[in-house]
UniProtKB/TrEMBL annotation:
UniProt membrane topology term: Multi-pass membrane protein
Keywords annotated in UniProt: Cell membrane, Membrane, Transmembrane, Transmembrane helix
Top-level taxonomic group: Eukaryota
Pfam families according to UniProt: Cation_ATPase_N, E1-E2_ATPase
InterPro entries named in the record: ATPase_P-typ_cation-transptr_N, ATPase_P-typ_TM_dom_sf, ATPase_P-typ_transduc_dom_A_sf, ATPase_P-type_domA, Cation_transp_ATPase_P-type
All copies of domain Cation-transporting P-type ATPase N-terminal, residue ranges: 33-107
SUPFAM superfamilies: Calcium ATPase, transduction domain A, Calcium ATPase, transmembrane domain M
Name of the molecule in the record: Cation_ATPase_N domain-containing protein
Residues covered by region (Disordered): 1-22
Any one cellular-component term (Gene Ontology): plasma membrane
Amino acid sequence: MKANRGNKYRDATENKKDGKKDLNELKQELAMDEHQISLDELYARLGTNPDTGLTSEQAKTRLERDGPNALTPPKTTPEWVKFCKNMFGGFSILLWIGAVLCFIAHAISAGVKENPTNDNLYLGIVLAVVVIVTGCFSYYQESKSSKIMESFAKMVPQYAVVIRGGQRIDAPAEALVVGDIIDVKFGDRVPADIRVIKASSFKVSFLQIFGMKVEISKVLLYIIPRRGCICNSLLIC
């Protein structure tokens, strides 16, 4: 069953001071007991039924109230900043400095000599052209890769089996709301922060989180009062 933590996360992030906050303070703000209270109390608090789930009207109201079940996307770097990094970052800045020095040397030579050579001018132009071409090509490659990754992410939307009004339906993971009863079977991705209310030989793999194959068995009523150690929930803490 989907637990109510979206608003608490948003409150915790919005109250950050200067973008940084002590970890202990964040833990205090994220006080929760959905994994500790009894199931009957949990059903009453979330206004749901373990057999029939929420009604379509309840789900719609909660979705409008809490927003979609999705992480807030990180701030993206503006395109002009990416372009400038490719044009002036790394070794390119040295080539720009070399080109500018060549132009300065040519200007000094033209002011002192009657018939100056154009070697420094040509060298400066070549350096500038090389930097511009390589910078544009690097920006194009980076932009192309980013768009490909975005298209892949949109091609395979995640769905979950949820009980609404006593019927099992396939719903987008973003449409899940607090109090939804979700059916998770072998091979499924956990679509939200949930508490396990019924299970049979249920194990969860944390390969994508820890980078290694870690399988943890999930039980129903084993309640640990210590925060951060949750054995009856699938909460990413």
